[in-house]
Design brief:
The chain is mainly alpha-helical. It has helices at residues 2-86, 91-111, 115-128, 135-148, 152-165, 172-185, 189-202, 207-223. Helix 2 (91-111) packs antiparallel against helix 3 and helix 3 (115-128) runs antiparallel to helix 4.
Length: 224
């Protein structure tokens, strides 16, 4: 009897200790889960900050392109008007004026979101002036119009023309970046990385190259 009572008291005393040990194990598990969640939140926060940076830089790049385009058009149109006033335009000059008018019309339609009409005008420009001053720009803006409508394959096709056919044009860097973005949207990360790497290597001092660097970093983080 005494032995039974002794064992009973030992069991009673040991029980709280065992329960305490289990509680400690549960707390450790909870702390581990909290730590893992904190790491995930930190990673997501970094991705959000990087994506926000990319969007802001892209908007700045686009705004600068529009400003540059406005200046370029104003300069060209002013020069053409001066030549018209002097009566010195020949047939080629008249063709150039027609090309400028088409280009300006397309951009104005783009500005007011009349995408289908803008594409039609740009198509006319490309057909009528395949080697014209604004041929590469027409392909670029066609790509932009398709991209804004999420027609990725058509956008890629037009950006590729600029990147491969007009290699000395100042739109090439932007086109390489857009090609990388399109490949990323299509989940072709290897192709996207290839375009970003080419852009950084061949056009290191451009705003597009800075965007490409951030995009490459995002690709690496997402792959991990």
């Amino acid at each position: 009897m005494k032995k039974s009572l002794f064992l009973f008291f030992v069991f009673i005393l040991a029980f709280p200790l065992r329960l305490s040990s289990e509680e400690e194990g549960s707390l450790d598990l909870i702390y581990q889960k909290i730590g893992a969640l904190e790491q995930e939140i930190a990673t997501l926060r970094n991705l959000i900050e990087e994506n926000t940076f990319l969007i802001e830089r892209y908007q700045e790049l686009q705004q600068q392109r529009y400003l540059d385009l406005d200046k370029r058009l104003h300069s060209i149109l002013s020069g053409e008007l001066e030549e018209l006033n002097e009566g010195s335009l020949n047939l080629n000059d008249l063709n150039s004026t027609e090309e400028i008018d088409l280009y300006k019309e397309a951009l104005e339609l783009f500005e007011v979101s009349r995408y289908a009409e803008a594409l039609e005008v740009l198509r006319d420009l490309i057909i009528s002036f395949p080697e014209g001053t604004y041929s590469a720009d027409a392909y670029f803006w066609s790509g932009e119009l398709y991209l804004v409508q999420e027609q990725l394959e058509d956008a890629r096709e037009h950006y590729l023309v600029v990147a491969e056919k007009f290699k000395d044009h100042d739109r090439v860097a932007d086109c390489l970046y857009k090609l990388g973005v399109i490949e990323k949207l299509l989940l072709n990360d290897e192709a996207a990385n290839s375009y970003f790497s080419r852009l950084i290597s061949e056009y290191p001092d451009t705003g597009a190259a800075e965007l490409a660097k951030k995009s490459k970093e995002t690709l690496i983080q997402e792959s991990n």
